[in-house]
Amino acid sequence: AQSVTQPDIHITVSEGASLELRCNYSYGATPYLFWYVQSPGQGLQLLLKYFSGDTLVQGIKGFEAEFKRSQSSFNLRKPSVHWSDAAEYFCAVGARSSGGGADGLTFGKGTHLIIQP
Amino acid sequence: KAGVTQTPRYLIKTRGQQVTLSCSPISGHRSVSWYQQTPGQGLQFLFEYFSETQRNKGNFPGRFSGRQFSNSRSEMNVSTLELGDSALYLCASRRDRGLADTQYFGPGTRLTVL
Q1: How far apart are CA A68 and CA B74, in angstroms?
Q2: Are A83 and A115 in contact (CB under 8 A)?
């Protein structure tokens, strides 16, 4: 079964500084990888996704992530954070079910991002 | 285009009761998935419906069930509520069942069991 680890429960970054959120996954085949963001009282919004091809993926709001198969990682990065980036960030892996269709997403426990002025 | 809507947004029930949550997917989306979010367990997959059929199911007891109607709207039911069922229940829709298709999440229903 697949699993996702986000080692950092909380991260504090100064506004304007760069950001990297870590994500490690465990899955036997080529994974489908996602990063979602959740603001208080809101649902999840997809930031970016990786299925195949270029290992550096660009997303919305200036975020990017790099898939590294050798390290089983899919870290999220942003060169300069804004106060509005404060939120909960979730990494997820998707599996393909034996029936050929998509399975549910397995999420990490999330990283709470705090932005200091 | 309207997003995924969930009703009600907040719900308070007592132990032993049952509850039904509703999800209206984005127009044209045929797949609806449900997730439970709690502080302790995080986000966990409950089940997915596609064209009125449950295709995949997570590791939850039989008290959790769901269904999907011909217009793709979905309902989730929890019977014999327990305190541990208090959670944010999120619904997500996508056009088809492929993982390549983006899953759009609703705002969730906050269920509190007393």
Answers
A1: 37
A2: yes
- The token pair that represents B33 in the structure block: 């998935």
Q: Is the Cβ pair A46, B97 closer than 8 Å?
A: no
Candidates B48, B100, B108; nearest CB to A104 = B48
pLDDT, block means (10 residues), chain A with 117 residues: 92 97 88 92 90 91 95 96 96 73 81 96
Report CB contact under 8 Å: A105, B45: yes
pLDDT at A44: 93
Alpha helices in chain B (DSSP H): none
Which residue, among B10, B57, B99, B105, would best test binding to A if mutated, counting the most A CBs under 10 Å from its CB?
Answer: B99
What's the rounded Cα separation, in Å, for the pair A94 and B92? 14
CB atoms within 10 A of CB B63: 13
- B25 at interface of A, judged by CB pairs closer than 8 A: no
